[in-house]
Design goal:
Layout lengths: L3 H27 L5 H36 L10 H4 L2
């Protein structure tokens, strides 16, 4: 399913996520709120660089479910344009 490189990358970003959560818990319990700067930086890095590695399987599954729901007319397919949103 995953190659060796992908497993290492996924493990790295998973560890980074746990580190961010750990720093957050430490910052809140010790009331050292400036540590949350590191949590924000780690969170942004995870969101921008590690999201596809961590959640690619879930995104594929979510897209398949959405396609099935659109096909069975449970939900409507929307295509928002600037004109429709009226920005």
């Amino acid at each position: 399913m995953f190659g060796e490189k992908e497993k290492v990358k996924k493990a790295f970003w998973t560890l980074a996520s746990f580190a961010a959560f750990g720093i957050f818990v430490i910052a809140i319990t010790t009331k050292i709120y400036w540590l949350n700067i590191f949590v924000i930086i780690l969170g942004l890095l995870i969101k921008n660089k590690g999201y596809t590695i961590l959640f690619s399987e879930n995104e594929k599954r979510r897209a398949d479910i959405k396609a099935d729901l659109i096909k069975s007319h449970v939900i409507k397919q929307t295509s928002h344009t600037k004109k429709e949103i009226d920005l």
